[in-house]
């Protein structure tokens, strides 16, 4: 019988090569890809950096069809921006020109705003830091690595944009969920390798965000920004957490009372001349709040898909409404 030989331990070079392969895989295809000029059919370089529950990438075209004529927009604001799919669609298609128009993105998550800020500053450095720090360990043991990074995050250890990006790219279905104590408790998604946004996508966002005001705070923090009595030329799009959906996006959650206060705020901006859009679940409580506090709002149907549910059969189209000011005829 042939004599069995002991398996050789991998050499330092082999381990280094394996780690490098994982880093390169996390960063995507390293070969340069032909970029399609912004506004050209098929261009998708400003797709959202990360998946997020309730993201509006699929609805952005329908939303912009309801928004005012782009040439009339002087100020564009999103008080619940997330990863800014609607803003990105506007820039991609030439509806928004940050620098020529004032653009304001606000989100309650300071970590998300810090990530967008890091992308605006140094997208390549951010991606390489994340890949070098986590890619090889995650490929070797995804479950253990995710648990360790999430634990470090909740302990407040060395939190930075690279750690947030790693968690965002590996959590379940784009669902960032926090307990009432502020701890992130989303389980790991079904991914066996770290896949980061492409460098060309991150660099496209770097350009798009150069003249944008990025603000970490509640939507009420945008009130001081929208100071003039006459808000003609302002376009404000609100996409808060949905009633009946996942509301623990950030510590403190989102309630019916919160929605009512937001509807009142939207009605006030509308009265002062702004175009305002507010999307939410087509729910009786939402309809009641709109009828009571913003009766002149027009209501248009939107169709979205639900990607998060413990029962896979209940994932699919979700009835959604867009309440908005009178926009295009």
Blueprint (SSEs and pairs):
Blueprint lengths: L11 H16 L32 H7 L8 E4 L6 H8 L9 E6 L2 H12 L1 H18 L1 H13 L6 H10 L28 H10 L3 E5 L17 E5 L17 H16 L3 E7 L2 H10 L4 E9 L9 E9 L5
Parallel strand pairs: 1-2, 1-4, 2-3, 4-5
Antiparallel strand pairs: 5-7, 6-7
Helix pairs in contact: 1-5, 2-3, 4-7, 4-8, 5-6, 5-7, 6-7, 9-10
Task: Tell me what you see in this structure.
The protein has 329 residues and is α/β, with parallel strands linked by helices. The protein has a domain of 176 residues: 3-Layer(aba) Sandwich (Rossmann fold), CATH 3.40.50. The protein is built from ten helices and seven strands. The chain has a seven-stranded mixed sheet, with helices on both faces. It is globular, with a radius of gyration of 22 Å.
Based on the model shown, name its key terms:
10 helices; Rossmann fold; globular; alpha/beta; 7-stranded mixed beta sheet; 7 strands; 329 residues; single chain
The general outline is: globular
Q: How large is the radius of gyration?
A: 22 Å
What is the second-level CATH architecture of the domain at 60-110 and 200-324?
Answer: 3-Layer(aba) Sandwich
Number of strands: 7
